[in-house]
Amino acid sequence: MAILCKKSFGIIFVVLGIVSNSLYAQPKKQLTVLSSWSILEDVVKQVGGTHIRVISLAPRGIDLHHFKLTPSDHIRIINADWIVWLGLNLEPWLQSSLKGIPKEKHLQLGKQLANLLLIEERNREPGLKDIDKPSEHDHEGKIDPHIWHDVEMIIQVCQLIADGLSKKDPEHAVVFQKNADLYIEKLKSLHQWVHQELSFIPASHRLFVTSHQAFEYFGRAYDFETISPRGLNSSNQASPRVLQQIITKLREREVKVIFQEAHVNPALLKQIARGTDIVIQEELLTGNLARFGEKGATYEGFIRSNVQQIANAFKSYLNI
Fold this sequence. Notes:
about 325 residues; Rossmann fold; two-stranded antiparallel ribbon
């Protein structure tokens, strides 16, 4: 009987020990990842899954050119486990805040994509990209940051994020890479879908006019000549000479649509359309995802929304 009691007490102590350890054991903390803006937020979320918590500094539905950090944003930057940003002059509001942050704590994606970037020549009048002469990029010029309009560029970004997360949290590296592989397959299908959706447009009509120079990567990837009355900055003004040359180009190519961008003043496009049969189409999403619950709230939705609008616009005047 005494032996049985000792055994019973031993079992109780073991059970109590297990219960005690389980009560005091803390779950592994999620990585807090800070993205500079919504498109990177979405890609990081796709790769990190449940093992991270991702926050975007710049809110959705705004023009990134005019965003400014708040005091609470600076606190987020200090407290984040990892920060993902593009660079390439897209987030000048972030660069000064990262000066005191260790290099291993943030990933500047633009540095890793150097060989794939488009560069605007210096000492050139803003607007009318590639209309006066062939595209011979001066590598001392200004880098075009609008890489997200080419889906294949975001495939590169996805893999860089997977590599970075794996270094920050090696325990879940296999999961991160698996998530990235699945997402990359979706992006490859999306890239092919864009080509197919726009394949009906004749080469002679593949002229794409927008408010500012945000769609150069789109044009390179999907075979459009892209021009705009402004340069890379949506606040730039255009000369009457540039506006007239764009109108002439549209008439020569018999293209009857131009595209307004979300959060960009349409005044210059109205000047182009005035007195012509050119129609200004609905707003395209340019630099930021739509708000949650709206069309274009994910990167895939962003691309599909824009491409469907572009396709419908060309179909309307080509009578397809």
